[in-house]
Amino acid sequence: MRLAKVPVPAPDAGEVLVEVSAVALNNTDLWTRQGAYGTPEDPEALSGWRGPLDFPRIQGADVAGRVAAVGTGVDGGLLGRRVVV
User: Fold this and answer.
1) What pTM was estimated for this model as a whole?
2) How far apart are CA 83 and CA 23, in angstroms?
3) Can you tell me the distance from the alpha carbon of 18 to that of 63, in angstroms, rounded to the nearest whole number?
């Protein structure tokens, strides 16, 4: 695992961008770290409930933050709203 700077994505139509202020690690994050869903060296390795994941992988599926940007078709009134994903 390593810390890396990645480009900030722009939301596509129907999506929002959340500026994350807190994140929790869950069992999937831990199992991915342990190689349960494949590894960068062997991404086809299968176990668990789903197939291989794309690497590099940004972990942290359980997040809280604020809506920072909205894609087309999304209510602009959501900007700045606190959310839990």
Assistant:
1) 0.67
2) 12
3) 9
